[in-house]
Amino acid sequence: MFRLENVKYKQILHIDHAAIPERKTTCIIGKSGSGKTTFIKLLNGLISPDAGEVYYKGKALSQLDLIKHRRRVIMLQQTPSIYDGTIKDNLQIGRSFSNLDEATDTEMKKALDCVNLHKELKSTANELSGGEKQRLALARILLLKPEVVIMDEPTSALDEETAHEMMQKILQIGKDKGQTMIMVTHSKEVVEAFAESVIEIDAGRVR
Ligand SMILES: Nc1ncnc2c1ncn2[C@@H]1O[C@H](COP(=O)(O)OP(=O)(O)OP(=O)(O)O)[C@@H](O)[C@H]1O
């Protein structure tokens, strides 16, 4: 689904070749500072390589409309963006960015349930804890229909048990929708339990 050929980005990444399969869960692993976040930013076009090319379904990203690309390839950043307003506002804003109709209250409550966030839709989003904000951002993604979901350490602010349970649900939902899931993780347990493909980055290179 993704292919990187001779990609260079600053002094940070030098990728001769890497590929990510469609409709599978791929984990990106590697030490802190090795270039994992930079790697996934290249995939959704948040940054562009200085040399080489990233291909999505055989098309060079440099030739694609990146705004449209980012609706198909959604990225959940390490520190999620939470906007002023209620939980409901924060869920709807994702829908509107993706040009989708508003979600119903029932759909929103179901998404919150999936990520074990048991709060009222009218609660103020910025009063949530760090882990709760992370789960709200995940729920926002559950209400969208991307082809690819990229997550940067999605459960770093959660305890192990909650993290595992939630990942299981999110990845299952992704599979049911036929989505490709890509996830940066430091957790060996997550890799063992969920990875169908693994890319290890070591000092900016794929091992
Ligand atoms: N815009 C930038 N300009 C220059 N250097 C950068 C930039 N962004 C990141 N870096 C550096 O590139 C290296 C890789 O960063 P990156 O965030 O991709 O690592 P990471 O593997 O995701 O780390 P972590 O696991 O700690 O999140 C780091 O040394 C970082 O300081």
TrEMBL record:
Annotated SMART domains: AAA
Query: Which molecular function GO terms apply here?
Result: ATP binding; ATP hydrolysis activity
* Annotated protein name in UniProt: ATP-binding cassette domain-containing protein
Record organism = Lederbergia citri
Which keywords does this Swiss-Prot/TrEMBL entry list? ATP-binding, Nucleotide-binding, Transport
Q: Which domain of life, per UniProt?
A: Bacteria
Domain named ABC transporter is located at 2-207
Coiled-coil boundaries? none
InterPro entries documented for this protein? AAA+_ATPase (IPR003593), ABC_transporter-like_ATP-bd (IPR003439), ABC_transporter-like_CS (IPR017871), P-loop_NTPase (IPR027417)
